[in-house]
């Protein structure tokens, strides 16, 4: 039986802890490092000296003349993580440096009618082209964000509304085999929530314990839940699939449609259906039977009456489901993510709906807002997940030493 960890494991854990604090704080003094980690100053000094020798931190002091307020800053421009996000409309790829800066990012449109294996080959070729100038040992890992429901059991399965082909292929495992690089996978809304959590100190000054992100790419609606910094996954990974929550038991629901469930009414493409239902009543409308969701959003921001009706109905339906989330999870913060229009009247309509169904004493303690992140939160969440995995394994230092040629660790 393993009763504890040996000295080598302890040293590795201490180094990873110091490195994590350095990366999270940007710049920090040795004294604050000691306070945050609980390690003795002598231990901190030994670790910092090693990091300086490797070349992964810089100091504002001159050589060995350590100043009392010496600031240490992490640097590792030659180490990377790769994030991939796949949905019904496109796939996106972003190469991050180890400090979280996006080096290269691009998006390619796809169609649910395309052969999924051809989509995979195209994705693989794009990743290979992006990584070709970089030694494999300099890639910490890859994270693939998948739409849901995303089942994690014997095999990862993406049961995506309107994209059934995706359930027939395990893209993350195929990429790992083809590239020879560790690949993690996670539900895309969960990654978005994780990125928002990691950026929580930028969001508001007061601490938060839980948040929920709500996102829709067309037909589906998914939620990512993070509590105390931990992603809520559930037994097989389907926690947060609120789009499948039944809200109309009178609807004629079968296995072949989604009538009666939340995403049927609050998915962004529902706005098109709402517009078409009353199109004949607005003969002067700029919208027509061929108008897309984006056309409706554009007209909505121009205060076009039919578009306003469709988007306000979408907002009401969205708020109706959020009220359920509030009572079930009681989060500090609910964040509306991609595709819902970041437009004050839309958010105000959602909040008005919440006032109809949520007790004011409960509602006053919850923030409902749009994401203020300038980054693609799914891809950024993938970066954070790869990094966290290496920290949990205490292997990040090994990867860095391998990359800079300071170790032959396999």
Overview of this protein structure:
The chain is 42% helix and 17% strand. It has helices at 7-25, 30-37, 41-54, 116-131, 171-179, 188-198, 200-203, 262-266, 270-277, 293-301, 305-329, 344-357, 360-363, 377-393, 396-404, and strands at residues 27-28, 57-59, 72-74, 80-86, 90-97, 102-109, 139-146, 150-151, 157-158, 183-187, 210-215, 222-227, 230-231, 333-336, 367-370. It contains 15 helices and 15 strands. It has a five-stranded mixed sheet with strand order 6-5-4-7-10, sandwiched between helices. By secondary structure, the chain is α/β, with parallel strands linked by helices. The model is unreliable at 406-410 (pLDDT under 50). The radius of gyration is 24 Å and the shape is globular.
Write a compact overview of the structure shown:
The chain has 410 residues and is of the alpha/beta class. The chain has helices spanning 7-25, 30-37, 41-54, 116-131, 171-179, 188-198, 200-203, 262-266, 270-277, 293-301, 305-329, 344-357, 360-363, 377-393, 396-404, and strands at residues 27-28, 57-59, 72-74, 80-86, 90-97, 102-109, 139-146, 150-151, 157-158, 183-187, 210-215, 222-227, 230-231, 333-336, 367-370. The protein has 15 helices and 15 strands.
